[in-house]
Amino acid sequence: MKASTSVAITAFVLVAGFALCALQFPNIASTRVVANLLTDNAFLGIVAAGMTFVIISGGIDLSVGSVIGFTTVFTALAIERWGIPPLAAFAMVLVLCALFGAAMGTVIHVFELPPFIVTLAGMFLARGVSFLLSTESIPITTPIYSAVSDFAIRLPGGGRLTAIAIAMLVILVLCALLLHLTRFGANVYALGGSRAATALMGIPVGPMTIRIYMLSSVLAGLAGIVFSFYTAAGYSLSAVGVELDTIAAVVIGGTLLTGGQGSVIGTFLGVLIQGMIQTYINFDGTLSSWWTKIATGVLLFVFIALQQGLMALARRSSLKPAGAKLAGAKSPEVKPAGALT
Amino acid sequence: MSDPSAPPATRPSLLDIRGLSKSFGTLKALDGVDFTLGEGEIHALLGENGAGKSTLIKVVTGVFARDAGTVRLAGREIAPRSAKDAVDAGIATVYQEVNLLPNLSVAQNLFLGRQPTRFGVVREGEMKRRARALLFDYGLDIDVGAPLSSYSVAVQHITAIARAVDLSARVLILDEPTASLDRHEVEILFSVMRKLAERGIGIVFVSHFLDQVYEICDRVTVLRNGRLIGARDIADLPRIDLIRMMLGRELAETTHERAASQPDTAREVCVSFKGFGKQGYVAPFDLELRRGEVVGLAGLLGSGRTETARLVFGAERADSGEAKIGGKAIRLNSPRDGAGFGFGYCPEERKTEGIVADLTVRENIVLALQARRGLHRPLSRREQDEIAMRYIRMLDIRPPDPERPIGLLSGGNQQKALLARWLATSPKLLVLDEPTRGIDVGAHAEIIRLVRELCEQGLALLVISSELDEIVTYSNRVVVLRDRAHVEELKGDAVEVSSILAAIAADTAPAHEAAS
Ligand SMILES: Nc1ncnc2c1ncn2[C@@H]1O[C@H](COP(=O)(O)OP(=O)(O)OP(=O)(O)O)[C@@H](O)[C@H]1O
Ligand SMILES: [Mg+2]
């Protein structure tokens, strides 16, 4: 109930914002702009899906931006310098990402360290390794890249739904299915509700943690590959700070930073909102692109305040007799959340 | 106390624990404990707060690693290393602390980790159908798709129990399952337990309610300070002897006489409420709370007791009526307002909502006092130590170490520390919601004594309790609630268990007649 309200609010903001943009610049309301928006933010959508799992489970993953950077450098080097076929290079880099995520998850679980610290270390590590590999931008010229870049589904109205946009949409759908329809997904929510209780209920908490961070890193790896298609290059400084954009998208999408609640759809809407702001600024032409950050910051603020407000509201309404009926004559006492702490 | 570990003569043994030991640092929480559970037996595990009951359960189910000892299940040695291993081996447990997930639906909570799936996809419909059927056996007919947090503590507890029972284990362990259930729900639970026992499942039952122990159990095992005191058939064990086994001393039998009551008009009114209420929450009520007087709130779970307490404290905003102190109307819109007038409120869900697990006992005790004084007037360390030690001694909090993180205390001792937190603020009005829940017989008597003492010192008290004996013992007046309305106020000699029961049960019959 509460989760769907925040998604509804996000959707409303997106639609209203889009309508406002379209009023000012009627050209925005075209499949071309929308399709471009999807293409430009494809990599962001993919990492954000992974981040959604991590945040719902009560964690955070600050390493994703660096993992994207590492992936682009590694892929470019593998294809261009080491002569590895692109598909094999992708497989290799994804395996490395999976191992990296598994290592972070293991450290978090075994040493009971805060995910913030562990993934912060992971962030420096991954970025450092990409610098070690190469400090310059490496163009990728293999024919597969241009073939994929040229591929697109033509939409009525002149839009081009590119391969990477399609990849993002497919990945988002798969992630939504995984999160909302499987036992794994239920366990992710459970972990965010309470780690201790989840363990006592007999869920293997350790393996779950490891898998969640693996998933996040692999999706960051996929995002990195998509990013390398987008820029046709590998560069160790790419995607700096993307972890923060990602977290912002997830939170704007209605996922609670404290865990236990959220959705992939919301995250997708969050990504679109960020993309929309960017598009507006591009259309305007006079605004500095840093306005994107400012607008995102303001929105984040508003959304977090909204979430708090909604929660207070929900707390109030849950005090009214809920729909519960005992078979006996009386209705159960409905407990309010803590009053005094 | 001879031959403490003699196995029950009649039943084949199912769970056999020998020489189990567990230390936390220097503290021996379990010291060579033996325990034998027979097939189809309901076995009470008793002892004071901190005796080691929950620790025994956690060691057996692999939540804590054991230091020494063996555990045999149906003759086969087991050594579970996590709650999951224990479940797989056939031991299902409802732990003392809430072990469910408030953010998930009731159905997910019942089936987490074992949801029905098809091709890896959870079958929501099927899961909900089964969840409903399962809860129906417990007399619950609720929307199982709603998040668990939207239901009462009692419903949550029943959900936890239903989950454990449904794991169709051979051994079912229930650590204080009845602490937040009302009489009716306890009855349902007991009938389920009897059915399971008939099927040959062995049940370990931890409770501080001795009546319940005598009602449902076949055997008892008593622990004290981590040591085994003895195991007996309940039929041959008079209650007095059982209490002596638990406490190691006699219980001073002063607790069950009623305090002499004085005419209540003689006392100074602390705060009064007129037509105070909130739509859909509690019907408007009149209530006068006087200094040096205990007002008991009696009624079934859900009758509006906690709701009344929250309105009185300001935790909930009333939409009708007014509150007055010394004849002047006051604003009572938030807990801060309440605290500002010197009100204290010790909520029922202390265990999950009141404690700050990582802070020490001392820090937890001085928390509210410090908050009242404000940050710019910190309590000195010496003052803090003094206050903490005073209440540790007064409430017999064990171990008596103010520097221990409170999360490491046993459940009952955590509750005592929370009570201390509010007492330390020396409030004018103290609202206690189920102050003796989860507290052992010895400490129970202490708390009742304390309530009376506070009252003599001129405090106004509003106490909620489901135990009518207890309420009768300390209350000068008793307000009876039904269906979220105050229906009767009993005073003086009318304060009796039978008259309270009559007021509670005067419900449906006449009301219906009047209606029809
Ligand atoms: N994780 C822990 N670390 C350190 N000490 C602990 C821990 N858990 C329990 N203890 C200590 O072990 C002792 C036994 O605690 P336990 O929880 O088993 O008591 P209990 O018999 O269940 O009491 P209650 O009736 O209050 O629930 C207590 O002194 C407690 O402080
Ligand atoms: Mg206990």
UniProtKB/TrEMBL annotation, chain A:
Q: Where are the transmembrane segments?
A: 6-25, 37-56, 62-80, 87-111, 117-140, 161-182, 188-205, 212-230, 289-306
The topology of this chain with respect to the membrane is: Multi-pass membrane protein
Q: Which CDD domains match?
A: TM_PBP1_transp_AraH_like (cd06579)
User: Superkingdom of the source?
Assistant: Bacteria
Q: Which UniProt keywords apply?
A: Cell membrane, Membrane, Transmembrane, Transmembrane helix
Q: Which residues form a coiled coil?
A: none
Localization annotation = Cell membrane
Q: Which InterPro entries match?
A: ABC_transp_permease
Task: Supply the name of the protein.
Answer: Sugar ABC transporter permease YjfF
Recall the taxonomic lineage recorded for the source organism. Bacteria, Pseudomonadati, Pseudomonadota, Alphaproteobacteria, Hyphomicrobiales
